[in-house]
Design brief:
The protein is mainly beta. The protein is built from 3 helices and 15 strands. The chain is elongated and about 55 Å long. Keywords: Signal. It comes from Amycolatopsis azurea DSM 43854. This is Lipoprotein.
Length: about 300
């Protein structure tokens, strides 16, 4: 899916003072008009452009014809065209329209509007993750509490939909990030799943080591969240996807090898059933495989 974007800087006169305002044309995709009112340049008659909402970017990238902002994995860095975003008093970050596996990506105009409304609603947010359930009537946004070095990083998603956007630290002001902050890339861990956040499509878990009697013992007591890799593998030992005969299906290491599915795993986690498993995380910090750890 290709994306194009135009960089436009216009001058708006407000109360007799001239202010430079970054104007953003919607990226292609599922973009919708933002909350800002269309304005016209006082010096020329041009088509109205959609204004970046208050609280979002404060200045477009300047010079040159620019590019679409699309990265190699299809994500679109909207901040290349509308500036960085951030809650008051916090680190400014790039706003990324995340490419879903089905090819859909939020439009940059909608992305700026969603993140601006989230920041506006922060005083009424829920809990330490600052979750806001109703953004533009369908989005849910939450801060990534475990994003090391990225204080205030936010993920927004539409429940039961593939649309997602997020903020990521940038390599420099107005520049695309060289690399997204990742917690467990290309690694394997024993974990205790503790739930599933459907709004941002992430599984919650704690790192564990074997304890007395085969019970799991938390490593650091922290709860982490990672998304599941689309099409990732899930294997059951006994309870995750129980067989009709009640047979235990494990390998020599006591790890499940009975074919299961991500939907079954998500169902178990959504219902509050704890699942012990060995997870493999890919280079994009997504859970690529889940093998249930058998315990009698």
């Amino acid at each position: 899916m290709k994306f194009t974007a135009k960089k436009t800087i216009k001058m708006a006169v407000v109360g007799g003072a001239v202010a430079a305002t970054a104007l953003l044309s919607a990226c292609s995709g599922n973009g919708v008009a933002g909350n800002g009112s269309p304005v016209r340049n006082a010096a020329e008659t041009a088509a109205a452009a959609e204004q970046v909402p208050e609280g979002a970017g404060q200045g477009a990238a300047s010079g040159g014809t620019g590019g679409s902002g699309a990265t190699s994995n299809g994500d679109v860095n909207c901040s290349e065209h509308g500036g960085q975003v951030g809650a008051p008093g916090r680190q400014k970050m790039d706003l990324i329209a995340v490419a879903a596996t089905d090819g859909t990506t939020p439009g940059c105009t909608e992305a700026f509007t969603v993140i601006a409304e989230y920041y506006d609603k922060l005083p009424q947010a829920e809990g330490p993750g600052e979750r806001v359930l109703d953004v533009r009537g369908r989005w849910t946004c939450a801060r990534q509490a475990d994003a090391a070095g990225a204080q205030g990083a936010v993920v927004c998603g539409v429940p039961n939909d593939s649309l997602q956007l997020e903020t990521r630290p940038a390599g420099g002001t107005g520049q695309a990030p060289d690399k997204q902050v990742r917690k467990f890339p290309n690694s394997t861990h024993s974990v205790q799943f503790t739930g599933y956040d459907a709004d941002v499509r992430m599984a919650r878990f704690q790192l564990t080591v074997p304890g007395k009697g085969g019970d799991a013992r938390p490593v650091d007591g922290k709860t982490y969240r990672l998304p599941l890799q689309p099409g990732g593998k899930v294997f059951s030992a006994a309870t995750l996807c129980p067989s009709e005969s009640g047979t235990v299906t494990i390998d020599d290491a006591g790890l499940g090898n009975g074919p299961c599915s991500q939907d079954k795993l998500i169902q178990q986690l959504t219902e509050g059933n704890p699942v012990r498993a060995q997870i493999s995380v890919n280079g994009d910090d997504r859970i690529a495989s889940v093998k249930e750890i058998y315990h009698p």
